[in-house]
What does this fold into?
Amino acid sequence: MYSAITTSIENALLLITINRPDKLNALNKTVLDELNSAVDEIYNNPSIKSAIIIGAGAKAFVAGADISEFQGLKHSEGMALAQKGQDIFKKIEDSPKPIIAAVNGFALGGGCELAMACHFRIAADNAKFGQPEVNLGLIPGYGGTQRLTQLIGKGRAIEFMITGNMLDAATALQYGLVNYVVPQEELLNKAKSILEGVNTKAPLAVGRCIKAANAVFDHTKDGYAEEVKLFGECFATEDMIEGTNAFLEKRKPNFSGK
It folds into this structure.
């Protein structure tokens, strides 16, 4: 089905692998289009409850955009490229099913932006993060200026972007850019173990947690009002009835996602 990514489903978990190891998994048009289709599958396939994005090989998650595709682009074409990347990454951020980035090496430029669009990040101990676009006369264009500032703060984000320096995994953990750092051989199992636990929770409640958290950074919404609305919606679900009954009856809940 795909040429630049691979996908597989196991135990309701979709594994998406960016599969251009000879190019350090750089994001080109094909990768973006196929990633967009894979995210659509997350939204639309009821057998999928969560997802992991990882890069092929041991060197890179995604080492940036495919710069060869930037040559010859004019002002309007550059804007269109940024808008396309932002739209796809926003779809990842807004997914009602959790998507984790398993960062197994370099996450640079668009790769760092892809990782930040995921709901959280787990890094291998060899991971390196960077927004080196200034070295090309550019800035991050796929949401990186916004998400980096949200995640690590304005001062650190500006320093990170204008120097083009890389962060190692330990520093990324200290800054709050990643949730965990683990040996590379344990990376995928760590991500899977977290999502296997999440997959036992009420799916509609999980999605509403994500939606409420995203409202913090949406200037068109009052986050507290959004929380009230989403909290109330939970009371109209079968899962809320099942969850509260199971708690009172001292048994494990059996959530249906309804």
